Amino acid sequence: MLLRGRTVTTLASALAVLVSLAAGCVGGSPRLAGGSAGPSGSVTPAPSLPGTPGHYDDGEFSFDYPTDWPVIAGTDNGREFVEDVLAVFGNGTWAENCQSGGDSSNGWSNCGTDDVTVPTGGFVVKVYLWYGGPAVPCRGDTPANATYGDLAVRETLKPGVTSWEIRAPGNEFGQPNNIFVEAHTYDPGQLAKAVAMVASFRWNMSTYTGGSCPTALGESPSPSPGNS
């Protein structure tokens, strides 16, 4: 299965690549909404996103987001071959939690849970594509537990964090190349906006090449609800 120019990797190969790219997974200070101060104290501009203001579109999938949401980060490849961060919004702070070390011939890297700080009444929303780890066999794991608009998703609720997994066409839940939206907030208004963003998600079927299990599941690779 091919998406965004990358193939699904096994856990072993992902780890091998991460070792060779130790410098590519480096922790950093949180990136602030609206720009951050550089080494000289100057303010760098906030990241831009593909598409138009309020509408993310990279040619493979698209979604709508509130135009008043500050952009903390755009595409970020700190976790190369594990996940592809598409966008991070919010009025808090966010940074990947990665460490690396070694010498000129050998290296290591490790990424833990993101460093997220949410002010009282604030929010941080992360959108990413997960494509690393071992290949997941087709098991018929397609039942969703929530539907927003015409999009059926797998919703996970934790204190202060709500996440949604969006299946790629022909994929099951838990397989690489699915999209995840992760909202850190206790504010019901911001949570409702995150839900609306999830409901707006669309795959571009003219560029998407198909998922892992269309034959096993009896699904057609043609557009299904939530895709265009």
Describe the structure.
The protein has 228 residues and is mainly beta. The chain has one domain (2-32, 53-217). The chain contains three helices and 18 strands. The strands form five sheets. The chain has a seven-stranded antiparallel beta sheet with strand order 9-10-13-17-16-15-14, with helices on one face. The chain has a four-stranded antiparallel beta sheet with strand order 6-7-8-18. The longest helix is centred in the C-terminal third of the chain and has 12 residues, at 188-199.
Share of helical residues: 10-25%
Return the average pLDDT rounded to an integer.
75
Following the backbone from N to C, one meets helices and strands in this order, namely: EEHEEEEEEEEEEEEEEEHEH
Whole-angstrom Rg: 18 Å
Number of helices: 3
Poorly predicted parts:
5-44, 220-228
Overall geometry comes to globular
N-to-C CA distance:
19 Å
Give the strand order, joined by hyphens, for the main sheet. 9-10-13-17-16-15-14
Give the DSSP E fraction (strand runs of 2 or more residues): 35-45%
Number of domains: 1
Number of DSSP strand runs:
18
Secondary structural class: mainly beta
